[in-house]
Amino acid sequence: xxxRYTISDEGCLPGLxxxxxxxxxxxxxxxxxYLKTRHYRAGQVLWTEGEVSGRLMLLDRxxxxxxxxxxxxxxxxxxxxxxxxxxxxxxxxxxxxYPATAIAIDDVEARVMSRSALRQAIKKDPQVAMVxxxxxxxxLRQAFSRLGDQxxxxxxxxxxxxxxLLMPAEPKGATMIIDxxxxxxxxxxxxxxxxxxxxxxxxxxxxxxVLHRLAAPRLQVLDTRLLRDxxxxxxxxxxxxxxxxxx
Length: 247
Known about the structure:
- By secondary structure, the chain is α+β, with helices and mostly antiparallel strands.
- Helices cover 42% and strands 22% of the residues.
- The protein has 2 domains: 7-151, Jelly Rolls (Sandwich), CATH 2.60.120; 153-246, Arc Repressor Mutant, subunit A (Orthogonal Bundle), CATH 1.10.10.10.
- The protein contains 10 helices and 13 strands.
- The strands form 4 sheets. The protein has a 4-stranded antiparallel sheet with strand order 3-10-5-8. A 4-stranded antiparallel sheet has the order 4-9-6-7. A 3-stranded antiparallel sheet has the order 11-13-12.
- It starts with 6 loop residues before the first strand and ends with a helix.
């Protein structure tokens, strides 16, 4: 599986299954007999913040966004899950509720495991628990980073970070295409901004040759490194604009 990108101070964080050692991948395989295939429609809510039911999911097709609503009513997009990700098991760990809402961006196919089935798998092979705890740690670091960034980063940086999260793990050929979730006003709300603010940020990225607009809602990434730097809050784009003006 190709590398999956997320924003962090360290740069690019690979997808869970990429980073597992051989013995850890074998532990994940222990889960297979307990997994059942489920399908979810685009826009369907898998669970909401505060629910305590709990289910482990291994995403096979489509994308899922995890977001949290802040006290002021704005939303924070915590992360976008892609095929190969294992998620949804926090209530298994501490018995508490889900800290975020999960919504299908596309039509989704996933393999799902119940709480009792997961307990059986861990009892059979304790290494499974270590795999899941490692995944949980990565997710929590991402989430804390997003929550902190919401107040500190500009709208442009938040849009760039969201688009970077949407970059496919396996681009088709040499072209990196992003399918922006629709409707746009919902996705903009996930980022805590209006559709107009989102559109202005995309236009700025297009004008500076970071992105290229295709037929809506698709965007082509022309400069992956610059998009990543802008998402990380570096003031790269302003310097590029200044250079263009000077030229």
